[in-house]
Amino acid sequence: MADEGIGPRCVEALQEWFDFDEQTTIVDVGTMGLLILDILREHDHVIVIDAAQETGHPAGTVVLYTPEDLAQHQVLHSAHDMRLVDVLKAAKLTGIESKSFVIVGVQIQDMTQWVLELTSAVEAAIPVACACVLQQLRQLDVTFTPKPDAAIPAELYDALKNYSLCS
């Protein structure tokens, strides 16, 4: 639904632009709720890219969150939806705990329409959000290299070079 699709779009971009070391998994988990527990069980470090709302920032702003921080800004689709922080609490109760867990949140503009397109402000945030993920991966000593024929936007390199997005 419009800007709510920022996570999958960033995952697609990262997979299109970079090769990652074999210990790194880049995956779109959608809104799987408790089914994410299997992924958490298999990984020590987790970085989530997700839509955020009511952050007080303009649409397209990229913000780094802890799960507890995101809880108040998380996009819920229905009263039956489960917040990521609740999934992590369930994981802890079952003995699953990641060594590190961060969320790259992108302030949405619109998710009221049933369309696949992002608004222009959120679309423009894709390279910056991806740069934020890459900075987090660097801190974890994850190796990644640009794919030879990838059309990586200059905004990604600019964000990596000029900003401390996720410190």
Concise summary:
The protein is 36% helix and 16% strand. With 167 residues, the protein is of the alpha+beta class.
What do you see in this structure?
- The protein has 167 residues and is α+β, with helices and mostly antiparallel strands.
- Helices cover 36% and strands 16% of the residues.
- It has seven helices and five strands.
Element-by-element helix/strand order: HEHEEHHEHHEH
The residue-averaged pLDDT reads: 84
Q: Helicity level, as a percent range?
A: 25-40%
What strand order characterises the main sheet?
A: 2-4-3
What Rg, in angstroms, do the CA atoms define?
15 Å
Task: Give a topology summary.
Elements: H1 6-17, E1 18-20, H2 37-42, E2 45-52, E3 62-65, H3 67-71, H4 84-93, E4 100-107, H5 120-123, H6 126-139, E5 144-146, H7 154-162
Parallel strand pairs: 2-4
Antiparallel strand pairs: 1-5, 3-4
What key attributes describe this structure?
7 helices, 167 residues, globular, two-stranded antiparallel ribbon, alpha+beta
